[in-house]
Amino acid sequence: MTSISKISKFPHLRQDFAASLVVFLVALPLCVGVAVASGVPAELGLVTGIVGGIITGLLPGSSLQVSGPAAGLTVLVFEAVDTYGLPALGVIVLIAGLLQLAMGALKLGRWFRAISISVVEGMLAGIGLVIIAGQLYAAAGLKAPASGVDKILGLPGAAADAFGSTEALASLAVGAGTIAVMVLWKRLPKGAQTVPGALAAVVLATVVTLAFGLPVATVEVQGLLDSIQPPGADEFAGLASVGMIGTILAFTLIASAESLFSAAAVDRLHDGPRTEYNKELMAQGAGNAVCGVLGALPMTAVIVRSSANVAAGARTKASRVLHGVWLLLFAALLPAALALIPLPALAGILVHAGWKLIPLRGLVSLWRSHRGEALILVVTAVSIVAVNMFEGVLIGLALSVVKTAWEASHLRLEVIDKGAGPVQVYLSGNATFLRLPKILDSLESLPQDRPVELDLSGLHHLDHACRTALENWAERHSAAGTDPVKVTEPAVRAEVPEPAKADAGAKATAV
């Protein structure tokens, strides 16, 4: 009876158990790789993965997506650690988590879905470019420059240095081999692919390095408990810095947007319960708050682990919680295994992950159908490489707002001049200050010695700046010795009839 009751209480335990092992094997090399690339101890990546599985995994929100350290935050974390130091990272992540909790409580989760997808994809593309450039140096055992532009511009010189060093060539060979294994792994039979490609690549790289005694650097191990450093009172004093506040806001915005976009993508992969966005945002906030207290990396929902979870047959949140348990057992029982992993193998994993963040195919199709959105994507990516993460995202958001405002202010101006009688001018659409210069140019080009009928009944919106400018123009035109300009006021109704059809003497202009 006991076993029957357990089965009825956990009807999908077998599927979730199997899926949790797959997710664990996918998450393990990524947790370590993201931590090393972020400039923090490898164990802190495991801590974030453990918290993402056990803490965030238990909370309501999305049942099947999996959280942990993400490649998308690697650049921002590295900049934060480099600027403020590792102890301050806990404060940044803690405050960002508390902000996520507050936003979820205020039911702002769904608003993150209003962020332009082009800005998000541009953000990920910019991150991918910086990751690839930086990890190419790591693959050769060289120190990468600080800025994204310097990383890219310095690659030819780094290549020249690498080809003149036996150690660098050996390191590059391990990194390149790791990437090759991951790319070719997808072409193997389905049975072989039950082992994740990233894990297989790291294991093979480790075996080859040990077998041939290659002179490559390996992961430095501190121990799980030794790597955990809760922030002290001195670190909180940094909150008076405008730069740290900006970094916290960047963490909050990017982590929240990436998690909720991931939730929307994961929902399309299964037919189970849909994501409750406000609760998911609070779950992410709770996880980040715990990570901040432990001085660990920030977390987001990660689409790679989440899609692996769904593909492995997970049915409930038990799979992601168990994957956190497996990470905890590995970190507690086999920490020495980390010291065997070659750093260029982790760099190869990050280069592969960075490449997948760049939507090359999507950009081509986007350019064909929506060039404005494609431009936003490219500008956001380039801005992140040229400036930094936070300002690059702000530039993308600002450009998206400007584009939307410009499109929302679409106006049609139609002039009908039959050669005799009044000149008829029809305005339809939305008359805003953005279109005011062209409106006035068209009106001021009308004959001064002819009466004018200005029909505004086709306008859906007329802002104060346009109304004032039209009134001033009408007064000036009427003062020229002609009949006063006859103005038909905008109609206040949901649907506005089309202006009268223009005949042979009519011309229409979209401004």
What is the strand arrangement across the widest sheet?
6-5-4-3-7
Major β-sheet, in short? 5 strands, mixed
Report the count of strand segments. Answer: 7
Structural class: alpha/beta
Give me the number of helical elements. Answer: 22
Give the fraction of residues assigned to helices: 55-70%
Query: Mean pLDDT, rounded to whole units?
Result: 85
Identify low-pLDDT runs.
1-8, 492-511
How would the global form be characterised?
Answer: elongated
Q: Separation of termini?
A: 77 Å
Percent strand: 5-15%
Taken in chain order, the helices and strands follow as HHHEHHHHHHHHHHHEHHHHHHEEHEHEE
Tell me the radius of gyration. 29 Å
User: How many discrete domains?
Assistant: 2
GO cellular component, one term: membrane
Biased composition (Low complexity): 502-511
Protein name: Sulfate transporter
Pfam families: Sulfate_transp (PF00916)
